């Protein structure tokens, strides 16, 4: 199959018509129409509906566009990288990241990254959901404790831990039998009533009695600092509050939290992806996550 015909089809789809694609690319309208027709004949399906004021893709055309847009862009980047001798990273870098990481660290990180690589244009999307890197055209994703996925590869760049955080005004319960101590608590909206928080080693168990249900871990932290109750929080966002005595910790809960930077194993690792992975790993040389990474 002629890849240049596929490129012309994508140009026509992106611009919404043969005439608009012709004006934008400098390629003749007749050439574009012929190349799309050749592609339709090779595939044996109609890709575009002709005759309307604005071009409309058929269902087959929509499927072809969604499945080939990213890979074809990667092939182009690979050719460019080979032609440039794998030179300086360039182009758009799309990053998916969880909201908390984005709020406390990502802005400063990407600012430093583009200062090092000015030919890269960074676009971030911050959502606490699972994103499909291929289908949604992301280059890399930041994930917390990712599950094994044969389609993704990457590196763990930092570790954090969850701790029981409390204001000094709430005394730490003493161990008393098997029943967990009831404590006023600030919890996320996802908290399930009846959950018990147990410090690592089984030394202390508490039964949270929610007084506030909030939608952001930063809001939870601020409520703990204000004295509202005990919370389960990442240690990384408590640094200054602990240092000034506004929060005390009663121990860590569960295993360490790992932060990974991932990209698809099916994607040709372009210079921009390789540079970002190496960059973010280098920002946490001791492997500990802090909200003020190394410069």
Concise description?
This protein folds into three domains: 3-83, Arc Repressor Mutant, subunit A; 91-159 and 258-282, Periplasmic binding protein-like II (D-Maltodextrin-Binding Protein, domain 2, 3-Layer(aba) Sandwich), CATH 3.40.190.10; 161-256, D-Maltodextrin-Binding Protein, domain 2 (3-Layer(aba) Sandwich), CATH 3.40.190.290. It has 295 residues and is an alpha/beta fold.
Report on this structure.
This protein has 295 residues and is an alpha/beta fold. The protein folds into three domains: 3-83, Winged helix-like DNA-binding domain superfamily/Winged helix DNA-binding domain (Arc Repressor Mutant, subunit A); 91-159 and 258-282, Periplasmic binding protein-like II (D-Maltodextrin-Binding Protein, domain 2, 3-Layer(aba) Sandwich), CATH 3.40.190; 161-256, D-Maltodextrin-Binding Protein, domain 2 (3-Layer(aba) Sandwich). Helices cover 36% and strands 27% of the residues. Strands 4-3-5-11-6-10 form a six-stranded mixed β-sheet. Strand 3 (91-97), helix 5 and strand 4 (120-126) form a beta-alpha-beta unit. Helix 1 crosses helix 2, helix 1 (3-15) crosses helix 3 and helix 2 (18-25) packs across helix 3 (29-43). The longest helix has 25 residues, at 59-83. 26% of the residues are buried.
Provide keyphrases for this structure:
295 residues, alpha/beta, Arc Repressor Mutant, subunit A, D-Maltodextrin-Binding Protein, domain 2, 3-stranded mixed sheet, 8 helices, 11 strands, elongated
